[in-house]
Design the sequence.
């Protein structure tokens, strides 16, 4: 069972659409069972689009659906109402929380998908609006889960709700494989209450580390999508691999980090205050 995790496309222009559409052959070769959009689809999405059927999102979600059975979570560049509309339209049989959170039950695994929309409606905000009701939903879901992954757009650190989130995770740490998040546009690993959390590669542009220029052509090589294979084990990032956008090369998280670090400084990045 393979899940393609497409994060941070940040569509802005025709070149970005072309890059997305031409990724189809690579997706087909990877043969994922499920496509999971991980937020920040259209760069100016949240400031320009609130209509649930806005054409840019319809086009992007149609593309995801053409590749496979697709689900979406919300980023800080997206309006939650658009994301919820797509999921409910595509999957009327799935039980969504009030905020649109959902669980994909896949054999022994539960993929718990948490919605983290921008804290201010209509504005790009790095801080996400995760409510106490959502955290309660997460706690209840973990209670009945066997092996779980948690997937969300924002890093579960540096937020007003991060301590509460960690407190919910802690008693279930042994059965949570990994927290997968997006947003940062660089390789990053965190420890959240004993659970490894790793940042998905962006499909759109990388952000350079402070003081670096984002002009080097080769850094484009490691942009791509995450490929979560529930049947594989990988020592660093359990069950996770990465597909480069160029050439479709699959690599481990370690290889992805190494490639990135050829062009950007190797120091760990700080979490709070960033606004990709
Ligand atoms: Fe983001």
Sequence:
């Amino acid at each position: 069972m393979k899940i393609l995790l497409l994060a941070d496309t940040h569509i802005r222009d025709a070149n970005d659409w072309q890059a997305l559409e031409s990724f189809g052959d690579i997706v087909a070769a990877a043969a994922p069972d499920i496509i999971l959009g991980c937020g920040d689809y259209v760069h100016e999405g949240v400031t320009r689009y609130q209509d649930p059927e806005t054409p840019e999102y319809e086009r992007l979600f149609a593309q995801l659906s053409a590749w496979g059975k697709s689900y979406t979570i919300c980023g800080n560049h997206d309006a939650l109402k658009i994301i919820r509309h797509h999921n409910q339209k595509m999957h009327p049989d799935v039980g969504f929380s009030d905020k649109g959170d959902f669980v994909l039950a896949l054999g022994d695994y539960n993929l718990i998908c948490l919605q983290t929309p921008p804290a201010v409606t209509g504005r790009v905000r790095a801080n996400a609006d995760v409510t106490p009701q959502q955290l309660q939903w997460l706690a209840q879901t973990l209670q009945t889960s066997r092996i779980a992954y948690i997937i969300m757009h924002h890093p579960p650190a540096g937020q007003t709700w991060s301590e509460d989130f960690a407190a919910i995770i802690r008693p279930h740490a042994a059965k949570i494989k990994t927290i997968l998040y997006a947003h940062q546009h660089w390789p990053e690993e965190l420890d959240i209450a004993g659970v490894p959390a790793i940042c998905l590669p962006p499909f759109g542009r990388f952000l350079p580390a402070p003081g670096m220029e984002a002009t080097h052509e080769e850094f484009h090589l490691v942009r791509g999508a995450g490929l979560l294979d529930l049947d594989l084990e990988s020592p660093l990032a359990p069950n996770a691999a990465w597909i480069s956008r160029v050439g479709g090369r699959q690599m481990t998280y370690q290889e992805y980090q190494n490639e990135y670090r050829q062009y950007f400084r190797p120091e760990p990045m700080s979490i709070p205050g960033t606004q990709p």
